[in-house]
């Protein structure tokens, strides 16, 4: 059994999707040890409770440095025997402590066809760009913002009459297909 921890800052729809894939046997050999969030008000906490997944709420503001924050996370991860970290809407750049401990064993999903539209509001950036396609990317995590090695991408059209919400819904559907598929391929 491979232990993974999922890091989320917001709603947690990708977190819930991955957990359901694990719980229904669609991701065999994987165990989700806990949800890690940096946001005490995030709705992902409610999702985790409904799915009976333990929750760790740790806010960087409670630590004097990013390194101390990440060292605290590493103690929790070590205690739970976590082998892989899955970022699913974790809205922080990962620091040196976590990167060194989990080099090559940390994945992220981003709602664009990287290297285009890195960072915040990738859907809005894509919509405003005039492009006719966008999508989702799963990549390894490195020290940059959405700069790690790309593993797999999936694309969808940007329609001329799309609202931001419509495009977000289409990209979210892609993510819910793509992330479990990549996790199944990479984490063995």
UniProtKB/TrEMBL annotation:
Record site: Raises pKa of active site His: 146
Gene3D superfamilies the UniProt entry points to: Formyl transferase, N-terminal domain
* Residues that, per the record, bind (6R)-10-formyltetrahydrofolate: 66, 91-94, 108
Q: Which GO terms describe its cellular component?
A: cytosol
Q: Which GO terms describe its biological process?
A: 'de novo' IMP biosynthetic process
Has keyword DNA-binding?
no
Keywords of this entry: Purine biosynthesis, Transferase
Formyl transferase N-terminal domain sequence ranges: 3-183
- Top-tier EC class: transferase
Pfam families registered for this protein in UniProt: Formyl_trans_N
Q: What is its EC number?
A: 2.1.2.2
Transferase as UniProt keyword:
yes
GO MF term (any one)? phosphoribosylglycinamide formyltransferase activity
Active-site annotation: 110
Pathway annotation from the record: Purine metabolism; IMP biosynthesis via de novo pathway; N(2)-formyl-N(1)-(5-phospho-D-ribosyl)glycinamide from N(1)-(5-phospho-D-ribosyl)glycinamide (10-formyl THF route): step 1/1
Which residues bind N(1)-(5-phospho-beta-D-ribosyl)glycinamide per the record? 12-14
Q: Which family does it belong to?
A: Belongs to the GART family.
NCBIfam families reported for this sequence: PurN
Q: What does this protein do?
A: Catalyzes the transfer of a formyl group from 10-formyltetrahydrofolate to 5-phospho-ribosyl-glycinamide (GAR), producing 5-phospho-ribosyl-N-formylglycinamide (FGAR) and tetrahydrofolate.
Designated name of the protein: Phosphoribosylglycinamide formyltransferase
